[in-house]
């Protein structure tokens, strides 16, 4: 009977080991939940940036040149370049990028490049009145 009574419960070492195992599992679950929440927030911000970029690009912005502006929680940067390989086609490349306004130096959340017609150079006064005499 004495043996049966001794084996009825857990020893102190078994209880401590079980608690340590449960603490490890609980910690892993909380870390995974935190990462999942953070990932969801980043995805939502990127989705907002893509929607803003879609709206800006769809506005027919051929008159917009290089520059930047703030819209809501984002900075929009527009960069224009003229690669030599597009000279014969008369095209420039305009890059639209969206950055988080509250994180200077952060990577772009969304970016898109478009080909736009290269503007015609201004004519000189002599060309407009029929050339120099």
Report on the architecture of this protein.
- The protein is of the alpha+beta class.
- Helices cover about 40% and strands about 25% of the residues.
- The protein contains three helices and four strands; from the N terminus they run ααββββα.
- The protein has a four-stranded antiparallel sheet with strand order 1-2-3-4, with helices on one face.
- A hairpin with a 2-residue loop joins strand 1 (about 65-70) and strand 2 (about 75-80).
- The longest helix has about 45 residues, at about 10-60.
- The chain starts with a helix and ends in a 5-residue tail after the last helix.
- The model has no long low-confidence stretch (mean pLDDT about 85).
Give a concise summary.
This protein has helices at about 1-5, 10-60, 125-130; strands at about 65-70, 75-80, 90-100, 110-115. With about 130 residues, it is α+β, with helices and mostly antiparallel strands.
Q: What brief labels describe this structure?
A:
rod-shaped, alpha+beta, 4 strands, single chain, 4-stranded antiparallel beta sheet, 133 residues, 3 helices
Task: Lay out the secondary structure.
Layout: H1 2-6, H2 12-58, E1 67-71, E2 74-81, E3 91-100, E4 110-117, H3 125-128
Antiparallel strand pairs: 1-2, 2-3, 3-4
Q: Rough shape?
A: rod-shaped
Helix content: 40-55%
Mean pLDDT: 84
Question: Which strand order do you get reading across the main beta sheet?
Answer: 1-2-3-4
Rg over C-alpha atoms, rounded to the nearest angstrom = 31 Å
């Amino acid at each position: 009977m004495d043996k049966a009574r001794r084996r009825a419960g857990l020893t102190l070492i078994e209880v401590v080991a079980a608690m340590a195992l449960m603490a490890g599992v609980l910690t892993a679950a909380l870390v995974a939940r935190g990462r999942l929440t953070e990932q969801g927030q980043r995805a939502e911000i990127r989705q907002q940036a893509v929607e803003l970029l879609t709206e800006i690009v769809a506005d027919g912005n051929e008159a917009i040149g290089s520059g930047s502006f703030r819209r809501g929680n984002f900075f929009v940067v527009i960069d224009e370049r003229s690669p030599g390989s597009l000279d014969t086609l008369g095209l420039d490349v305009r890059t639209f990028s969206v950055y988080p306004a509250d994180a200077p130096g952060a990577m772009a959340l969304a970016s898109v490049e478009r080909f736009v017609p290269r503007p015609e150079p201004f004519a000189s006064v002599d060309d407009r009145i029929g050339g120099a005499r």
